[in-house]
Amino acid sequence: QALFQCDHVQYTLVPVSGWQELETAFLEHKDQFKYFVLINCGANVDLLEILQPEEDTFFFICDSHRPINVVNVYNDTQIKLLVKQDDDLDVPAYDDIFRDEEDEEEDSENESDGSEPSEKRRRFEENVIERTMKRRQRREWEARRQEILFDYEQYEYHGTSSAMVMFDLAWVMSKDLNDMLWWAIVGLTDQWVQDKITQMKYVTDIGILQRHVSRHNHRNEDEENSLSIDCMRIAFEYDLRLALYQHWSLYESLCNTSYTSASLKLWSVQGQKRLQEFLADMGLPLKQVKQKFNSMDMSLKENLREMIEESANKFGMKDLRVQTFSIHFGFKNKFSASDIVYATASLMENIEKEGPETTNFIKALDSLSRGNLDKLHQGLDLAKKQLRAIQQTVASCICTNLVISQGPFLYCSLMEGTPDVKLFSKPVSLCLLSKYLLKSFVCSTKNKRCKLLPLVMTAPMDVEQGTVIMVGIPPETESSDKKNFFGRAFEKAADSTNSRTLHNHFDMSIIELKTEDRSKFLDALISLLS
């Protein structure tokens, strides 16, 4: 938006949550507009087939969903992909998947009648052999093409965050501002919070952004050039991997962060004891830990990070320190990038109805601009509610053994009437819940095989229509490449059982399903993946 405003370009903004809304929005606007910019949607399907646009319509796609559909990659005219040059796409070669329809028409036999019958027969036999060879080659090529495409499209994963790609674009055009840089940081942190990218990718991208941060936020320390206190400053720092702890109490944050609660197994009595031991080891009085972080004693806060890290190492939490950025507005407002991510995600999926669907999107968008701190604080409150709900649900799922091993994957289903179940009918909340649950389950189970399994989770979506929302997530292992094979598996299982499913989400691994078709769908999925 900032880039359009720089150039005084008029545009219309339409938030869409799935393929159906994208099609509807396109049909509504296709007569007035010729250029469409798709952000975080559209790369992983054959767009021209879905939308059937006119010849003079152009699409610019900036989307982190991978793999990118091959038709979009090789379409030179109507589809322009915005991708970073060093992104490794592994797209199959053009000749392996497309071939020009050769003139398969057999050459009509136009021999002169004067030739010998034996000559005719020989030529006819040669033709037959040649045609058979051509057909065989074509069949072999088709089979190879299927194989190549299957290998390419089998796993779903995420590339560089779209926010970073957009910032790169602004930088190349010399229009990059500090605000844009901050949005790029939030985009990257979102991928990390939602566990969409590997640790390696995160650290590499943080390094790229760090160079920009020092370029933008560098001021000489002498009196004349120092920044006025109202300005916005971005700083790189090593922070604690504790959710929202600067806006919460340290105790609440330790209890509701998936990393610490899974490591300490806080759903058990034993785990609660370990938490007390952990706090005692740091020498922090309970009274201090349970009050708001802002109100803690300054003397304790000064070297709090070092104290926590030291004790965390003793308790087996070696990755409590994480590279991130923070932002200061003026004197008292300081936020870390993950605070913003939690707040905007909660505003996006707020379940309290206030007007049309798009209101939430507009609110979340507003919370990103620095004039709207009240919206941001509202988002932070919602995020705390959401994290508490996730943690309680995880605890109850583990204590009541709701996570069942189905053979090739683990399965957990939330029943109607569970507390906060409405919250988990939304895709991002459900994905966060399933990732937290899988982490905690891996820490709690003694079964070695179960530690390596992916998880499929369902929650009630719409009780009146009798639908559930189902999500599949990859296994929780150190070396996991975050690639997800459930998208293709869900499609196949639905086809083979004629289940009534809706593959409407931009993430292929999230689907909607009729409740009564659930058991046959799961059976098909088990036999597919076994």
UniProtKB/TrEMBL annotation:
Keyword annotations: Cell cycle, DNA replication, Nucleus
Principal location: nucleus
Subcellular location: Nucleus
Residues annotated as transmembrane: none
Any one GO biological process: mitotic DNA replication preinitiation complex assembly
Gene Ontology CC: DNA replication preinitiation complex
Superkingdom: Eukaryota
One Pfam family recorded for the sequence: CDC45
GO MF term list: chromatin binding; DNA replication origin binding; single-stranded DNA binding
Keyword Cell cycle found: yes
Renumbered residue ranges of the record's region Disordered: 100-124
Biased composition (Acidic residues): 100-116
Family: Belongs to the CDC45 family.
Protein name: CDC45 protein
Origin organism lineage: Eukaryota, Metazoa, Chordata, Craniata, Vertebrata
